[in-house]
Amino acid sequence: MAKKIYVGNMSYNTTEDDLRDIFTQYGNVLSATIIMDRETRRPKGFGFVEMEEDSAADAAISQLDGKEIDGRNLRVNEAIAKPRNDFSRNRY
């Protein structure tokens, strides 16, 4: 089963290809996404990686959390799904 990983404190110069390359060392990467600011279209400094195997994701988390890449110490942990607000229910 796939596992989604949060990657924070990234350099603003890191690309999605760079992120994919970093995690590919540990297993098959299904997706790598860097979150962009809506107004400025610049990276926000964090993103998500989805890995195919849970064991590969766990290995990547343990090896990459705190590792320095592009002058920044990454924060890497399992992503926690936040419940989405359904604003359509709150209409009067």
Biggest beta sheet summary:
4 strands, antiparallel
Q: Name the quaternary structure.
A: single chain
Strand order of the largest sheet: 2-3-1-6
Fraction of residues in β-strands: 25-35%
Q: Which class best fits the helix and strand makeup?
A: alpha+beta
Order of helices and strands: EHEEHEEE
List keywords for this structure.
92 residues; alpha+beta; two-stranded antiparallel ribbon; 2 helices
Tell me what the structure shows.
- This protein has 92 residues and is of the alpha+beta class.
- Helix content is 22%, strand content 34%.
- A 4-stranded antiparallel sheet has the order 2-3-1-6, covered by helices on one side.
Give the SSE map:
Layout: E1 3-8, H1 16-24, E2 29-36, E3 43-51, H2 54-64, E4 68-69, E5 72-73, E6 75-78
Antiparallel strand pairs: 1-3, 1-6, 2-3, 4-5
Summarize, please.
The chain contains two helices and six strands. By secondary structure, the chain is of the alpha+beta class. The strands form two sheets. It has a four-stranded antiparallel sheet, covered by helices on one side. Strands 4-5 form a two-stranded antiparallel ribbon.
